[in-house]
Design a protein that fits this description.
The protein has 13 helices and 12 strands. With 323 residues, the chain is α/β, with parallel strands linked by helices. It has a single domain (37-321), classed as Ribonucleoside hydrolase-like (Inosine-uridine Nucleoside N-ribohydrolase, Chain A).
């Protein structure tokens, strides 16, 4: 709106001068865009299907800069080849894949056929522990490690160079069971905690992580038993994008019906922490792999004890469906 209007007349000549509004510099009030958070994902992708959904969500989250993905537990080289193909089909072959420490396992590698197709497989992969420590050294205080598998690489990194490991910004992990165990979806009285897979498969490494002094955010069974039901699967798999097609193929190779998306909650938390509010507590990992809340006043972790499945899927599905 004009602020003032003044008219000067001299004989037949009149001139109008308009006091125009001052236009603010639009850039002066614009918010500075936040730089993407640097992350490394440590995964046992290829057995259960939830790891693939977690990696897919990370790829569809511009808030994250994926510095690399490391494989852990069992046949880590074949897991790396699975990631080579998955990343290439998603248009992200630029993301490095590093191979973790192989371990004996009787667990079925359900998505082996996808991994062993030879399509996009790289000739070699760096060592996961060295890769992790090198990246931390290059970016001290900046990297979030997202741990969604058994903790072999984590324990080895702590053993090799604990000072460098402590330069992580934080660790966000799927693991543990505080009050609710497997199959406890909150409809019945809780039957109590269980030794959770990622913890019980390398108890010493879990104990080292909880004692490492790095900020630790834990997504246990209590908050991560999130069922991708038939309606949600049908919506997702009909999108026909490179990522949803790859997820559909891996889902069918997995060979079961309803996935439980434990691991994607770590990515969701890294991007939108209100999806899994955390509580500070002190956790003791015992010799049987239980994660006990031991009552020590000083906390060594922040733990999510409850999430909202509807809010989680309203966040997850549109992101995965985006071309």
């Amino acid at each position: 709106m004009f602020r003032a209007l003044t008219i000067f007349c001299c004989g037949v000549l009149c001139a109008a001068f308009v006091d125009l509004p001052v236009i603010a510099n639009q850039n002066s009030s614009a918010a500075t865009p936040q730089a993407p958070e640097k992350v490394i994902i440590d995964t046992d992708i290829g057995d259960d299907i939830d790891d693939a959904f977690a990696v897919a969500l990370a790829l569809r989250s511009p808030e994250l800069q994926i510095l690399g993905i490391t494989t852990t537990f069992g046949d880590t080289e074949t897991r790396a080849r699975l990631l080579d193909r998955f990343l290439a089909e998603a248009g992200r072959a630029d993301i490095p894949v590093a191979v973790g420490i192989p371990t004996p396992t009787k667990t079925a590698f359900t998505q082996r056929r996808y991994a062993e197709s030879g399509k996009y497989a790289k000739a070699s992969h760096p060592d996961a522990v060295s890769f992790l420590l090198d990246k931390i050294s290059q970016h001290p205080g900046e990297i979030t490690l997202i741990a969604i598998g058994p903790l072999m690489n984590v324990g080895a990194a702590i053993d090799k160079d604990p000072a460098t490991f402590r330069k992580l910004k934080r660790v966000v992990m799927m693991g543990g069971s505080i009050a609710r165990g497997y199959g406890d979806l909150g409809y019945d009285p809780p039957h109590g905690p269980d030794p959770e897979w990622n913890i019980v498969n390398d108890i010493p490494s879990a104990q080292k992580l909880f004692a490492a002094g790095v900020p630790l955010f834990v997504m246990p069974l209590d908050a991560t038993q999130l069922k991708l039901d038939e309606v949600k699967r049908a919506y997702l798999f009909r999108q026909g994008t490179a990522i949803t097609d790859a997820l559909a193929l891996l889902y069918h190779e997995w060979g079961q019906e309803t996935p439980t998306l434990f691991d994607p909650m770590t990515i969701a938390f890294a991007v939108k922490p209100e999806l899994c509010p955390v509580t500070p507590m002190h956790i003791l990992v015992d010799a049987q792999g239980f994660t006990r809340r031991d009552g020590v006043p000083d906390s060594n972790a922040k733990v999510c004890l409850e999430s909202n499945p509807d809010a989680f899927f309203r966040f997850l599905l549109p992101r995965l469906a985006t071309p």
